């Protein structure tokens, strides 16, 4: 199998991992069940709040998002109520998170959604909204609409890259072959729990400086076995 991300194919990786996929899925979900981070947006049955949370989480740690998310929910308890909230109020709530481009995106998204009166639950419709790219749309639909979609960010690229000895870069997450790999690694059942496990695992264990000693899947990881 080529280690060059430009020439890798999901079928090649799948063949290499044939004996590992089920074990990796099972162990990650087992780990995720006992290390689940119970953030309020994960249990949100309000699609408006859940989608806004996904934008807040862009390039920002969940712990930093938590107080801002709670303030936003208090300010805008529903999509209908958001109609009566001013742009300046929303900007003030979001200010602690920084990233002016994201604040602009959220303000515009609130404006669009209040006019629509609902949050779209179709991938193609979501990605057309301000600030909602492939990752946000996939995460939102996987977690809040029970649609089987893989989630791909830099952390997920790092995890699969280490397991399969792939050469990756900042563009890998946009590559078709990597999307195919992520889809193959995701179970057909319990995919929501699996995706949450991925998020928590890559934040706690498979970090830029990994904690390999406590990793439950280390014996299936090419990075670890070559240390």
Question: Could you provide a short overview of the structure?
Answer:
This protein has about 230 residues and is mostly helical.
What features would you describe in this structure?
The radius of gyration is 19 Å and the shape is elongated. With 227 residues, it is mainly α. It has 2 domains: 10-36 and 150-225, Helix-hairpin-Helix base-excision DNA repair enzymes (C-terminal) (Endonuclease Iii, domain 2); 40-144, Hypothetical protein, domain 2 (Endonuclease III, domain 1, Orthogonal Bundle). Helix 2 (21-34) crosses helix 12 (191-204) and helix 3 (47-56) packs antiparallel against helix 7. The model is unreliable at 1-8 (pLDDT under 50). It contains 13 helices and no strands.
| Main sheet characteristics | none
Uncertain regions: pLDDT < 50 for 5+ in a row? 1-8
The top-level CATH class of the largest domain is Mainly Alpha
Shape: elongated
Structural class: mainly alpha
By DSSP (H or I, 4+ residues per run), the number of helices equals 13
Question: Which features would summarize this protein structure in a list?
Answer:
single chain, 227 residues, mainly alpha, Endonuclease Iii, domain 2, Endonuclease III, domain 1, 13 helices
């Amino acid at each position: 199998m080529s280690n060059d991300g430009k020439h890798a194919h999901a079928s090649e990786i799948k063949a290499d991992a044939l004996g590992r996929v089920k074990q990796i899925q099972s162990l990650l979900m087992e780990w995720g069940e006992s290390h689940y981070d119970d953030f309020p947006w994960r249990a949100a049955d309000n699609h408006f709040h859940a989608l806004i949370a996904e934008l807040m989480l862009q390039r920002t740690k969940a712990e930093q998002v938590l107080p801002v998310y709670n303030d936003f929910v208090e300010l805008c308890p529903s999509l209908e109520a958001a109609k009566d909230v001013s742009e300046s109020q929303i900007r003030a709530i979001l200010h602690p998170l920084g990233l002016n481009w994201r604040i602009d995106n959220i303000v515009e998204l609130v404006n669009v959604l209040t006019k629509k009166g609902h949050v779209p639950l179709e991938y193609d419709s979501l990605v057309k909204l301000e600030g909602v790219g492939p990752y946000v749309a996939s995460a939102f639909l996987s977690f809040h609409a029970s649609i089987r979609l893989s989630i791909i960010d830099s952390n997920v690229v790092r995890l699969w890259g280490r397991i399969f000895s792939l050469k990756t870069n900042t563009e890998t997450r946009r590559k078709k072959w990597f999307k195919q790999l992520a889809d193959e690694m995701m179970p057909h059942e319990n995919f929501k729990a699996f995706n949450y496990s991925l998020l928590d695992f890559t934040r706690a264990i498979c970090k830029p400086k990994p904690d390999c000693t406590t990793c439950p899947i280390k014996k299936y990881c090419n990075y670890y076995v070559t240390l």
